[in-house]
UniProtKB/TrEMBL annotation:
Signal peptide: none annotated. Keywords: Cell shape, Membrane, Transmembrane, Transmembrane helix. This is Putative rod shape-determining protein RodA. It is a multi-pass membrane protein. The keyword Transmembrane applies. One of its GO terms (biological process) is cell division. Pfam families: FTSW_RODA_SPOVE (PF01098). The keyword Magnesium does not apply. InterPro entries: FtsW/RodA, RodA/MrdB.
Length: 375
């Protein structure tokens, strides 16, 4: 049962600094998106996309409101049900006739006029579920035997994602898992062994990759070869950022962006638009906002009233941290290209809703960081 009186009082405990940072990132993103969608030359299409982005943000705010009504500790008691629901959502897209293929991965449900990427929903349910399992192992992760239950619990998720195949999302889940397990007190010796094992298994992992995934690795290792798929996008991205200089060419003035030399400029490579049109100053400003955002998440994790709450925030932190580093990194050619969006900036309803819902989890934990007398 939702206690509405308690919920209204809890609203006073929200992290308004975090909210202000997110609103600033979103507002900045809308300005950049208006250029990436060519508002200056194709206003009808651009206004539709901008409207859709605002609608997704507004819907996400409503989702946050719903999430805040329920105490996260009560939700955590249903972690087994969340675990089962998560696996069903990941498995259903693999069924022929139900799942739809986009970008080489069968990760979508075709719902008529809408496509739903179920793994975006599962990010939320997985964090809530996995945090409960990790909580029970706190400070008892000294041997491989200790950590094995956590590995076994996570393997079905990773297996289903790789079966789609969606390596990018699988990496997001790995970062969520790593962040939580590390926070729970994973012994340093296990970390060292894990790194050695991963390095040793890289050749095998490469052999098991899909062809398009291998092409991305080859392209990253040979950036000078623009015949390799992915290198053209990165090359255009580097040209855009390099031509922007310190102050940029000005909003709506970037030739790489405006003349569509830069691919997927409204989503995967939107950071390059920032570099070309607002220069180093614009990029540093946006990165500064993300750093402030990350620090507020760390603060929320530290302020949680219990370890379960801390793990939830850390899981969200792992998700956002990976997406920010991956998106910016691939734009400047220091990380292989994957289809990862820039949180609160890239165009996309599913991405925005997922980001907002996970932000709601953080706010849920933070607003309940201390007991309040409601009498």
């Amino acid at each position: 049962m939702v206690n509405y009186k308690s919920s209204l009082k809890l609203l006073k405990q929200l992290d308004w600094k975090l909210i202000a940072i997110v609103l600033t990132i979103f507002g900045f993103g809308l300005v950049i998106l208006s250029s990436a969608t060519h508002l200056n030359t194709n206003s009808t299409k651009a206004l539709f996309q901008l409207g859709k982005q605002c609608a997704a943000f507004g819907l996400g705010a409503m989702v946050i409101g719903i999430i805040l009504l329920f105490d996260y500790t009560l939700i955590g008691k249903h972690y087994k049900e969340l675990y089962l629901i998560s696996l069903i959502l990941l498995a259903v897209v693999l069924i022929p006739g139900i799942g739809a293929e986009r970008g080489g991965a069968r990760s979508w449900l075709n719902l008529g006029p809408l496509d739903l990427q179920t793994s975006e929903i599962v990010k939320l349910t997985f964090i809530l579920s996995y945090a409960k399992i990790v909580e029970s192992k706190r400070d008892r992760l000294r041997t491989i035997k200790d950590i094995m239950p956590l590995i076994i619990y996570a393997l079905p998720f990773l297996g289903l994602l790789l079966a789609q195949p969606d390596l990018g999302t699988a990496l997001v889940f790995m970062c969520i898992i790593a962040a939580m397990v590390f926070t729970a007190g994973l012994d340093g010796k296990i970390i060292k062994r894990a790194i050695i094992i991963v390095v040793a298994l890289m050749p095998i992992m490469y052999m098991l990759m899909a062809d398009h995934q291998k092409q991305r690795i080859e392209a990253f290792l040979h950036p000078e070869d623009i015949t390799l798929k992915g290198n053209y996008q990165v090359m255009q991205s580097l040209i855009a950022i390099g031509s922007g200089g310190v102050t940029g060419k000005g909003l709506y003035q970037g030739s790489q962006n405006q003349e569509d030399f830069l691919p997927v400029q409204d989503s995967d490579f939107i950071f390059a638009v920032v570099g070309e049109e607002l220069g180093v100053i614009g990029m540093v400003f946006l990165i500064g906002l993300y750093i402030a955002f990350i620090f507020r998440l760390i603060y929320a994790a530290q302020q949680a009233r219990d370890f379960y709450g801390t793990l939830i925030v850390v899981g969200v932190l792992g998700m956002f941290g990976y997406q920010i580093i991956q998106n910016i990194g691939m734009t400047v050619a220091v990380i292989p290209v994957t289809g990862v969006t820039l949180p609160f900036v890239s165009y996309g309803g599913s991405s925005m809703l997922t980001s907002m819902a996970n932000l709601g989890l953080v706010m849920n934990v933070y607003m309940r960081r201390k007991k309040i007398n409601f009498g």
